[in-house]
Specification:
This protein is an all-alpha fold and 226 residues long. Helices cover 85% and strands 0% of the residues.
Length: 226
């Protein structure tokens, strides 16, 4: 019996088996990756198409057929990605809130860490400036509470903004600019004031004058904290 020959043959067959299994796993992984990429691209196309439509005419004024046509996908693709139009709107709202949070954070960071209260003012100004823009007014301030409900829209907003405000307030307390106090409660109060200021601007006949008015009010409010 040629034990050595059989052993070499078995080893070769085992190696081929392992190679085939490895190749199959890699092919399956590549297939899953391509599928995920296509899915992400479809989702991005739907969100990108829906966002300007929602901003221009509001949630109620836009149909799913128009959205899928603008995105270049089928209705089936839309409902594969989102349960309904409301969930697509939620994705648009989430994207916009994330961008707003980045703008606020960038404005605060541009002031520098040496003056946390000034950074907080800069972030507040950036938010109020954003609230003069059509898509922020329509999607964030007007439609989101009505479409998603006040609780869900509030939760999404707080997820993106509460941490930023808490960090800024804690830095101001640590720098001796704000008296020591519960940071989370203060952050909620401040966010509530800023949100009401934004709604005041949106509903005003003269939005530029309203923006200047509430900007001054919030400046004085922040000054009182110090």
């Amino acid at each position: 019996m040629n034990v050595k020959g059989r052993s070499e043959a078995d080893g070769a067959e085992g190696g081929r088996g392992r190679a085939d299994a490895s190749g199959g796993a890699e092919a399956a992984g590549a297939k899953r990756t391509k599928h995920a990429e296509r899915s992400e691209a479809t989702r991005a196309a739907l969100v990108g198409a829906a966002r300007p439509l929602f901003a221009e005419r509001g949630f109620a004024g836009v149909g799913t057929e128009e959205i899928v046509r603008a995105a270049g996908v089928t209705r089936g693709a839309l409902y594969h990605q989102f349960r309904d139009k409301q969930e697509l709107f939620a994705a648009v709202f989430e994207q916009l809130e994330a961008e707003l949070a980045h703008r606020v954070a960038t404005a605060g960071a541009s002031v520098g860490a040496a003056d946390p209260l000034a950074a907080l003012r800069a972030g507040t100004d950036a938010w109020l400036d954003a609230c003069t823009e059509r898509e922020v007014q329509r999607i964030v301030l007007l439609d989101a509470p009505a479409v998603l409900g006040s609780q869900r829209s509030r939760e999404i907003g707080l997820r993106h903004h509460l941490g930023l405000v808490e960090v800024a307030l804690q830095a101001a307390i640590d720098a001796g600019q704000v008296a020591p106090q519960p940071v989370r409660g203060l952050a909620h109060v401040l966010i509530g004031a800023v949100d009401e200021a934004a709604l005041y601007v949106v509903t005003a006949e003269d939005q530029a004058a309203a923006r200047a008015e509430v900007g001054g009010v919030l400046d004085r409010l922040l000054a009182v904290l110090g």
